[in-house]
Structure formats: structure tokens, C-alpha cells
Amino acid sequence: MSATPPVSDSAPRMLIPDRNCWRVEEADRFRLLVDGDAFFHAVREAIINARHSLFIIGWDIDSELRLRPGGAGDGYPESLNALLHAAANQNPQLHIYVLSWDFSMLYAMEREWRPVFKLGWKAHRRIIFGMDGRHPLGGAHHQKIIVVDDALAFVGGMDLTRGRWDTSDHIPESPLRQDSHGTQYAPLHDVQAMFDGKAARAMGELVRERWRRATGRTISRRRASPRQPLDPWPDSYPPDIEKVHVGIARTEPAHAGRPGVQELLQFHLDAIAAARRSIYIESQYFTSNMVGQALIDRLGAGDAPQTVVVSRKAGSGWLEEANVSVLRARLHHRMMAADRGGHYRLFSAELPGANGQSLNIHSKLTIFDDDLLCVGSANLSNRSMSLDSECSIILESRGEPRVRQAIARMRNCLLAEHLGCPEARLAEAAPERLLETIDSLLGEGRTLAVLDPTVDATLDASIPPSAQLEPEQPLEPDALVRQFVPVEPAASKRKRYLAVGGLALFFIALTVIWKWTPLADYLEVNALTRLARGFSNLPSAPLVVMGGYVLAGLFSIPITILIVVTGVVFGATMGGLYALGGTLLSAIVTYWIGRWLGRDTVRKLAGTRINNMSKQIAKRGLVAMIILRLLPVAPFTLVNVIAGASQIKVKDYMLGTLIGMGPGIVITVIFAHNVASAMRDPSPESFAMVAGVAVALVVVSIVLQRVFMARDNKGAGKLRAAS
Fold first, then answer.
1. pLDDT 10s digits, 206-247
2. Three-class SS string for 203-242?
3. 29-225+234-240: which CATH number, 3.50.50.60, 3.30.470.20, 3.40.50.300, 3.30.870.10?
4. Quick one: pLDDT band at residue 532, thresholds 50, 70, 90?
5. pLDDT of 87-120, one tens digit each?
6. Could you tell me how far CA 242 lies from the centroid of its own chain?
7. What is the spatial distance between Cα 557 and Cα 549, in angstroms, rounded to a whole number?
């Protein structure tokens, strides 16, 4: 390392702290880890080398993840959870901190179940697990950071979770590309930066601040024993370059009195404006309005740079196709219209023998003129530029030829992987001839393919310019209602305002009654079960049950309690029918109450409660109702009233309620019935039946998810989170 020239401080600088980055620090070593196999292997070695502190910050973390699917052969346990326990046991000074996003239930099927997850981490007193839900409405914590001993850091697009591992060969049917449950997933491409020095130490400060905000606890920097050398750098991965300037850039939404941070957005705007020869982009999502407009402005200029975007061919689910895929297609067509000189191309990465399936581009990387390389968690999307917490690393050349050459090698390495050609074929290409070089290397099998995304006209017409699943700023409750609920005429508002006052007093009185009077006893499952069994054999029982559900909706009684009681008393089949019918009847009654009250009345009645809506929702129609039912955004009755005031069609409202709530109702009824049966007849067979039902329900959930996925691949779509 001593032979490496010192970092130059005299060359022109793009990175300016407090403008387009948080800090600029020196890294002694820097390596771009391409694809999950390299990243997971390097992380495993770093964990084993850790001596006093290890921070894992992620959108999602899977405790059962195998970092080396083919077997590590290093004498340590295979799963991530067991590996961390082994590392903590062998190093008494080592403290491990795991912080994951307190996720929306929209992603529950994609992630490890929280109770199992937390119990796994809590087994060791020096492995501390935390969930971070401190973000504004609609936001997510999307940073993917690992810091080892404040001496080594990983920043990029990959979490330590399922569905991320793959080799750079991306073999379509690789038997090693399976999650911890044995389910195979599609080939996936991603990148992660690994670096040390002062830049890694700065990342230690950043993750400690995240931990403090999430948990309220401060973690001091620990000192290792002088007998233990602090160099956790993995020997299997030598650096790409040494002694470089590294910028740390973030996105943080304004929240809890803290101002927003949009360093990543400003960096991309500055870098696009300064680019003269080439812009190379890999992005899972490509939808950002402001970044897109900056690219459009450059493409319309006389000195437009060669602009290459590599993204995935299609969305990975029905919500994604209904939102971000539409927005990407719109941005692409705007860029094509502005590109008069043939300087822009959008590509997907194709794989041989994949039956038409393209490589899933999950990376978030941009390279400008071989002078700047940015890699991290942030997509070129509205969310990543403003709403979600993000962190990216920027390697800046400052005009140094050795750094520019290293950045060019990294870009060529990525293009060679996608084109299925030797890296040497790209080494002689000038940045200003990037598109011509790519065109000359296009072929059959492993290659890049020109992508011209289109969407169904009906779907396109239904998606607003900035869909709520891809917003440009945190969702304000009043704005959310304005977008979700159309304006109504001013006539008869006075009467409705009087109704608001009366309803408010009514609901307050109900709260007092249910909480502080003996009537609260009647809301317990046992009490309601006894009541229901008293009339269960009557001919009028179905009508009584239906009426009970309607009354529950009118009196804000949690409807889940009634669903459980219905399953216990009436069994799986009739209980399921009663619960589903009662829920739909209650939903339509409270819907018409909302329709009568109208938009402005609902805003005054429920505006503060809408603040509790925890995650993203779409603007209107069937998709809106499915999301509202899937997300734990608000009480059942409140959602119904808001939907009625919104003038959503009854057909979309009821179908969305059925799709969103139907599976959950069936699952709850069946499980409640079998648990009750087991309690009445406690035998190994009855408890085995409960366990069997639980397993069956999980299988059904997975099958339902795959049904949606199959529908998506034929032209519908879904959001991620991200990640």
C-alpha cells in the first residue's frame, strides 16, 4: 500500500459536503463486489474477522440465510444466525447490532416472520436486535449497510436476506439459487461497495445515529484489545484501487422535527449536468421525475453524453406493474422524444436457456464520464430521492488517471457480464462511443437487448402522474384525502357538519363505554362465544350473525373478534360463510354512510386518524381498495367510511374488500375452529390437526402469492420495497 500515490487534493471536485454529500473521506482500499456470491462471501469472512463491533442495517434480514449455499468449508456454521452466535462466542468483546425496517404488512410474504426472526436474534446477550419504524407516512428504511469494527464497511443494493445470492454466471436453473425454504428464485444481479479507512469509520458514525434514532439508545465506539489487530478486510477479495476519496450521500425524509436530506438527488442532478462523454446507469427502478427531467435536458443539448440504462424487463408483481412500471414507460418515452442524436438507450439483460426470462437487475449504480461512480441502496426513483432512507457511496476521481482507469474497469466489468463477452473487448472503448461499442457486441444468448417498455392503455390511464406507491415526498394526511377523495359541492355542508359533531361525540361515548364500564366484558372472545352459542341453533342464527357484524361496524367494535367467535361457534365451513358475508354486509353499510357524509365531512371526522395510515396506498379504484385492505392502515369502519366518501364504484369497493380481506377471514376462521376443537378435546391428534392447518395455511398463502406472480408475468405488476 505504501507504493500507492497519495490522494490528490488539487483536482476539480464534484462532491461538496452539505450540498450533494454528507462527508468526503479517504478510503485506504476500495472494492466493487459484483453479485451476491462475492458480497456474501466477503461478508462471511468479515464477520469471522470481527473483534469488537458489527452493525447490520437493512431493509430485510433473514436469520436462516446461508451466505455460502455450496458450503463454506471454514469450520463455522452455515446460517447467518448461527454464524453470528459463533462469532460472538469466540470473541468476548464482540457486540453485534442488527437493525431492520419495521416493515409494512404489504411485504410480509416476502420476508421472514417477525416473531421467529426476533426470537432467533435474542438468543445471545451480545446480539442485539432492533426494528426501525421511525419514518413518515408511506416511507421505508431502505439502507443496506454493514460496518465491522469501524474499520470496514459495505454499502450497496443487497440485504442479507433471501433471494439475493447469485453468481455472475447467472445460470438459469442453478440448484444453489434457493432460499432457506428450498424455493428457487430467478437469476439476480446486484453490486455492493466494500471499503475501509476513514470512510468506514464515518459509516460507523452513521449507523450509530440510525440506531439511536430507532431505539433511543446510544452506542459508544469500542476499543479493541491491542493484542487483536483491527483489519477485518477479507483476504479473498483484494481491492480494486487504494487511497481514494469516497463521498457518503444520503436520502432522509423530513420527520419528527428533523429536516429532510436529499444529497443523493442533488448529486445526480449535478453529475448529469456536468457529464460530457457518458452516463452508465443500472437501476432496479427508473422513475424519478427530477432525475429523468435532468437527463431529458441533457439529451436535448448539443453535447449530450452517451446514456446507457440497464434495468429489468418487467415488474415483479401486480402492484409494481400498476405503478412503477407505468411511470418508467412514461419516462422512457419522454427521453426518447428528447433524444434527437441517438444518445440514449434502455436495455434489459438477457440470459441463454432462461425461457425468455431476463436477468433481474436489482443494482443501484451510476457512472459519469469515468470520473464518478455511485453505488448504494438508492434507485433512480421518486421514493429513493426523497421519501425512503437511503445511503450510497461515491468514488470520485478528481482527475487522477489511476482512479479514472479503475472506474472504467468497473464499468467494463459490468458490461462484459451483461454482454457475455471478455472484458478486454470493452477496454479500448472510449466513453463517448459507449453505445457504438455495445451495439457491436450485441448477439445471441447472453447479451443486452433494447427495451421499449409499453403498458396497457387502460392501466396507463388509471395511474396518476406520480402514483402513491412512488411519491416524490412524504404523504401528508390532508393531501392523501384530497387525492383519494374527490371534491364535493358545498350544498348541505352545514347539516353534515352537525352530523360530524354528533358522530364525534357518539364515538367518544362508545370509547368510554367499551373501556371503562362493565360492558367491556362483552367484547371478550369468551363472553361473545357464550352469547353466540345461545342462539347458534335458532333458524334465525344467520340473520342474527349478519346483524351483529353490521352493528360491529356501526359501533366501531373490532371485527376480528367477531370473525374469531364465528369460527369457534359455527365451525370452519358455515363460520367462514357467515364471517365473510357479515364482513361484506358491514362494509357496504358503512360505505353508504361515508357516501352520505361526503368528502369534507369525512376529512373533519377522520383527518387526524388518517395520520396513522402506515404505508403507501394507490389513488383510487380496485387497486386502492386491495391495498387499503392489505395494509394495517386504519380501523375497518374508518376505511369503509373514507371509501364511501371517495365515490369509488361499489363494484371496485366490494371486489377489493373481498380480495383484500377474504383470505385473511378464511384463515382466521379455520384456525380459530381448530384451536377450539383442540382445547375441547386435547389429544395428540387434535393438536396435530392444528399444526396441520397452520402448515396448510402457510402453503395456501404462498400459492396465492405465486398466483399473483403468474398473473404479473402476463401483464399485471407489484411493488417492493424496497429494496
1. 999 999 999 899 999 876 555 555 799 999 999 999 999 999
2. HHHHHHHHHHHHHCCCCCCCCCCCCCCCCCCCCCCCCCEE
3. 3.30.870.10
4. confident
5. 999 999 999 999 988 754 334 444 444 433 444 4
6. 33
7. 9
Full DSSP string of 535-551: HTTSTTHHHHHHHHHHH
Long-range contacts of 66-70 (CB under 8 A, 24+ apart): 66/165, 66/180, 67/40, 67/41, 67/43, 67/160, 67/165, 68/40, 68/41, 68/44, 69/165, 69/176, 69/177, 69/178, 70/176
Query: What value does the mean pLDDT take over residues 12-26?
Result: 95
Q: Residues in the chain, how many?
A: 723
Residues 644, 595: Cα–Cα separation, whole Å: 4
pLDDT at 563: 79
Instruction: Confirm if 189 and 363 have CB atoms less than 8 A apart.
Output: yes
Comparing CA positions, the residue from 151, 237, 235, 128 lying closest to residue 192 is 237
Tell me the domain boundaries of the chain.
29-225+234-240, 245-462, 477-680
Q: Which CATH class is domain 245-462?
A: alpha beta
CA 89 to chain centroid: 33
Query: How much is the pLDDT for 681?
Result: 61
Q: What CA–CA distance (Å, rounded) separates 563 from 579? A: 6
Q: Do domains 29-225+234-240 and 245-462 have the same CATH topology?
A: yes
- E strands, 405-520, where? 447-450
Q: Which residues of 556-565 are buried (b: 16+ CB within 10 A; e: fewer)?
A: bbebeebbbb
What is each CA distance from 128 to 55, 120, 123, in whole angstroms? 10, 11, 9
Task: For residue 391, give the nearest of 377, 380, 374, 381 by alpha carbon.
Answer: 377
| CB within 8 Å of 708: residues ≥ 6 apart | 317, 318, 716, 718
- The set of residues, in sequence order, having a beta carbon less than 8 Å from that of 674 and lying 6+ positions away, is 572, 686, 689, 690, 693
Q: For residues 38 and 78, give the distance between their C-alpha atoms in angstroms, rounded to a whole number.
A: 16
Percent of the chain with pLDDT over 70: 69
